[in-house]
């Protein structure tokens, strides 16, 4: 009897263990009213109340998206099919009182790309979802799948039934049976870190060292295919492999690329994941889009280092409902952006002239659009609310910080050691399963690099707000920043609309283009009383909405003559949550251009400057 009892206990224990998973099922072929139905079978849940939650925010995004907004028809059932009572605690949280009785949960999901009726913060397309029957299903899984609070580490099964003409591309391999794909993951964080793109197959796999790289493309008019993109990114990936030390820290990676005929929000870009990246780009041909694809892919691919191998506890133990932000966006985004451009010039994909043009553009944009009196660490910690409009400075000032740190490290090591080596050493110290403490990173970097000088760099320029000494950094490699006053001794005049195009941004709520900051307004704009944050509506009657902005401005420039009436219609924030409409009118005139600081090569660089430049560029 003892042996039988032991056998029964072991068997029941194994059965319980086998049931410790969360199972999701979605049928793409049964889309109705632009909604998908998700069915969830829970693991064995504890007695008492259980919360089923949807993410407020996900890693890699820096906005409160509240994906629970897109959920409706939520119901929970017991084993007999009887509905269980629940309370909706918040837009993202459902509290089911008798959690142990849950046999199934079912709810409907709207896609984020095409649900303008749902109020709240605009979801950047690479972080969202799109459901187009028989054509495209862009599934960022955090936009469909919730989780049982306290069971985030439980294993996952996701079964997706799909139309026969569609293929599901992802960094996670699936088990396929007919028109059903079964995706498995070790945890909720792993499954939501792996978006899936269902479309008519246009895929290609590159073998890179010991890693497979999948490229999947959706182009509505088939203007670009996976093979063309592979030809563009293959040299890039080879260079990145070498930049990272000769091997990639992943065995499989996926580029999931969606091209759009019309950018609804005026924005495009990508969202990184540990082993994939999801792209939303304007449709065009490989000639016009090639460099954009190369730059964006270079940036996103480097995120396999951060945050996959290097991340703080805020990322390693991410809270999807009440997230804590790290103070190190300069590392996650800024240094990644710098490495993406440094790698290209280092391995001959671009030249140093193009690199310096990029640095110059970032320097100018940083001053035109952003408040650089805010310490970068403060901006990072409060990026979800107080400083949300400053986030994009990570790609400007953040990249310049990476450039300066690299040169300081190389100068202090006789050219032998830079940020490239620093990141490799940092990855060895931590890795995928070990997080650093946010407040300890600066000290740890001093220890790893053995260069105490960088402590002042972090104090003054990352944790402080001292003006970046870009000219000093450029001088170290035989370049300089031409003084703005010197450049304006021989002024030029041009026809302008009153602002610099680099100063423009898009308001994701109103879908209007606006002036980012005061420095982007030129002399003609100031004479019109154009102000920072003014949103553009029309120009001499021509619409300046996102869809028509380029066409209208080009048409205006072709027709306008000096002395003609210039009528710019704008919406100005009134301080009460709304806008007042104004027409700024004046005779059109040529504008004296205040030349921005420009980067140029010194005529007679010293041997020391040339040596450091050579070391900085050595592949």
Structure description:
This protein is an alpha+beta fold and 619 residues long. It has three domains: 19-201, Immunoglobulin-like, CATH 2.60.40.3650; 305-485 and 598-619, Neutral Protease, domain 2; 492-593, Pdz3 Domain (Roll), CATH 2.30.42. The chain is built from 17 helices and 30 strands. Strands 4-7-2-1-11-14-13 form a seven-stranded mixed sheet. The chain has a five-stranded mixed sheet with strand order 16-17-18-20-19, covered by helices on one side. The protein has a four-stranded antiparallel sheet with strand order 5-6-3-10, with no helix packed on it. Helix 4 crosses helix 6 (329-346). The model is unreliable at 1-18 (pLDDT under 50).
Q: Structural class, judged by helices and strands? A: alpha+beta
Helix run count: 17
Assembly classification: single chain
Helical proportion, percent range: 25-40%
CATH hierarchy: architecture of the largest domain? Orthogonal Bundle
- Report the CATH topology name of the largest domain: Neutral Protease, domain 2
Which features would summarize this protein structure in a list?
seven-stranded mixed β-sheet, five-stranded mixed β-sheet, 30 strands, Pdz3 Domain, 619 residues, Immunoglobulin-like, alpha+beta, Neutral Protease, domain 2, disordered N terminus
């Amino acid at each position: 009897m003892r042996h039988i009892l032991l056998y029964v206990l072991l068997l029941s224990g194994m059965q319980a263990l086998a049931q410790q998973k969360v199972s999701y099922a979605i049928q793409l072929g049964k889309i109705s009213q632009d909604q998908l139905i998700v069915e969830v079978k829970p693991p064995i849940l504890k007695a008492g109340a259980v919360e089923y939650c949807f993410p407020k925010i996900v890693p890699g995004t820096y906005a409160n998206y509240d994906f629970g907004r897109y959920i409706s028809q939520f119901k929970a059932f017991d084993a007999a099919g009887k509905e269980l009572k629940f309370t909706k605690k918040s837009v993202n949280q459902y509290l089911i009182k008798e959690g142990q009785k849950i046999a199934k949960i079912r709810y409907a999901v709207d896609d984020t790309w095409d649900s303008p009726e749902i109020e709240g913060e605009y979801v950047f397309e690479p972080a969202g979802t799109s459901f187009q029957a028989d054509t495209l299903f862009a599934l960022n899984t955090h936009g469909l799948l919730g989780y049982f609070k306290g069971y985030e580490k439980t294993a996952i099964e996701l079964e997706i039934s799909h139309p026969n003409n569609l293929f599901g591309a992802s960094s996670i391999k699936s088990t396929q049976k007919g028109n059903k794909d079964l995706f498995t993951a070790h945890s909720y964080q792993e499954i939501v870190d792996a978006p899936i793109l269902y479309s008519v197959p246009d895929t290609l796999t590159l073998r890179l060292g010991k890693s497979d790289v999948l490229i999947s493309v959706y182009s509505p008019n088939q203007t670009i295919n996976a093979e063309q993109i592979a030809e563009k990114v293959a040299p890039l990936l080879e260079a990145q492999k070498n930049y990272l030390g000769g091997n990639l820290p992943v065995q499989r990676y996926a580029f999931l690329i969606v091209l759009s005929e019309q950018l609804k929000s005026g924005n495009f870009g990508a969202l990184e994941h540990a082993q994939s990246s999801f792209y939303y780009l304007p449709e065009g041909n490989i000639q016009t889009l090639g460099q954009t694809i190369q730059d964006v892919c270079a940036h996103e691919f480097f995120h396999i280092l951060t945050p996959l191998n290097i991340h703080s506890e805020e990322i390693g133990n991410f809270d999807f409902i009440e997230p804590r932000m790290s103070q190190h966006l300069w590392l996650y985004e800024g240094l990644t952006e710098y490495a993406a451009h440094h790698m290209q010039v280092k391995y001959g994909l671009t030249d140093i002239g193009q690199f310096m043009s990029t640095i110059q553009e970032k320097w100018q944009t940083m001053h035109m659009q952003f408040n650089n009196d805010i310490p970068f660490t403060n901006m990072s910690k409060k990026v979800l609310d107080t400083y949300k409009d400053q986030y994009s400075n990570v790609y400007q000032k953040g990249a310049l910080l990476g450039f300066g740190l690299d040169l300081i490290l190389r100068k202090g090591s006789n050219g032998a050691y830079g940020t490239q080596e620093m990141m490799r050493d940092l990855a060895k110290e931590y890795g995928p399963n070990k997080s650093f403490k946010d407040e300890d990173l600066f000290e740890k970097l001093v220890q790893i690099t053995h260069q105490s000088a960088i402590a002042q760099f972090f104090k003054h320029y990352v944790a402080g707000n001292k003006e970046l000494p870009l000219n000093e950094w450029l001088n170290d490699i035989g370049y300089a920043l031409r003084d703005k006053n010197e450049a304006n001794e021989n002024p030029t005049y041009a026809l302008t609309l009153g602002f610099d195009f680099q100063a423009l941004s898009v308001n994701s709520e109103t879908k209007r283009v606006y002036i980012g900051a005061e420095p982007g307004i030129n002399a003609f704009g100031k004479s019109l009383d154009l102000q920072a944050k003014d949103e553009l509506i029309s120009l001499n009657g021509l619409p300046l909405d996102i869809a028509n902005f380029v066409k209208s401005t080009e048409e205006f420039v072709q027709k306008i003559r000096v002395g003609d009436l210039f009528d710019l219609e704008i919406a100005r924030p009134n301080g009460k949550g709304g806008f007042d409409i104004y027409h700024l009118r004046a005779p059109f005139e040529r504008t004296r251009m205040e030349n921005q600081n420009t980067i140029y090569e010194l005529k007679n660089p010293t041997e020391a400057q040339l040596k450091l430049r050579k070391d900085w560029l050595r592949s």
